[in-house]
Amino acid sequence: MSEDEFRAAMSRLAAGVVLVTAHEAALDPDGPRGEDVGMTATSFMSVSLDPPLVLVSLREGSRMDDLLAEQPRWAVSVLSDHQHTVAARFAMRNRVSDRLLFDSVPHTRGEATGAPLLDGALATLECHTEQRVTAGDHTLVIGRVLTATLPGPDTSPLTYFRGRYRQLSQ
User: Fold this and answer.
1) Which of 75, 107, 115, 131 has the smallest C-beta neighbourhood within 10 Å, fewest atoms?
2) Number of separate domains in the chain
3) 166 in a domain, yes or no?
4) SS3 category, 3
5) The whole model's pTM is what?
6) Does 103 fall in a domain?
7) Which residues are CB-contacts of 122 (< 8 A; sequence separation ≥ 6)?
8) Does residue 99 fall inside a structural domain?
9) Cα separations (Å) of 8 from 12, 14, 141?
10) 104 is a domain residue
């Protein structure tokens, strides 16, 4: 089977869309500072209720993979159907900096992680990495959920199907 055949088959599986975020802390002589990092993911799922665990699949060697290998706190915003531009913005590969990406995206900072949590998301989760598993060209990151909130209106989720962001028809 070719990579293209596999990709085509998997594109037929509809997936929810999330924004995974973390705060990359740095120290300078004037005090703590850092940069917020974010990436769109469709490979995200619940793993366990007791304890509450989730899993996200990260491209090996990506900035988020490298960051979460160094520090264990991160967050997830489950995107609603009106947040497709946010999903597209954070799906870009090979960005030099995420600093400007967060400037026009309304968010609050998570108390448990310091990571950005998107305003208007269907749900937000703050997590602590429990385990990292290498799987082919990806790293599966299993996180214990520290907090879960429902900050946004009860609207439809943003989904990804056949290579495009979609809205569920009711």
Assistant:
1) 131
2) 1
3) no
4) helix
5) 0.90
6) yes
7) 78, 79, 80, 150, 152, 154, 155, 157
8) yes
9) 7, 12, 25
10) yes
DSSP characters over 15-34: EE-EEEEEEEEEEETTEEEE
What the block records as the tokens of 99 is 């600093």
Give the residue numbers spanning the domain of 47.
3-157
Q: What SS3 class is residue 49?
A: coil
Q: What are 143-168's pLDDT values in tens digits?
A: 999 999 998 777 899 999 988 888 87
Q: Which two tokens stand for residue 116?
A: 């950005």
d(CA 109, CA 5): 41
Q: How far is CA 92 from CA 37, 97, 135, in A?
A: 12, 11, 22
pLDDT tens for 91-140 read: 876 555 666 788 889 999 999 999 999 999 999 999 999 999 999 999 99
Question: Alpha carbon of 150 to those of 27, 78, 155: distances in Å?
Answer: 33, 10, 11
